[in-house]
What we know:
By secondary structure, the chain is of the alpha+beta class. It is 39% helix and 14% strand. The chain contains two helices and two strands, in the order ααββ. Residues 1-26 are annotated as: Disordered.
Amino acid sequence: MSTKPPAMRPTGEDVQSVLDRASGPRRGEVDELLQIHSDVTGEDPVVWAGRIIGFGE
């Protein structure tokens, strides 16, 4: 029996390229939230499933 890889996994995609999809007033919010989440978790951001930024596992 073969096992399918999980749909939600780190992609290795560049975090900044995903963040650059946000524009206008949302971009400022994105940068602020990224900093808050990094400070709280102590983890580096990682792209999951090509569009979700996560911190840790």
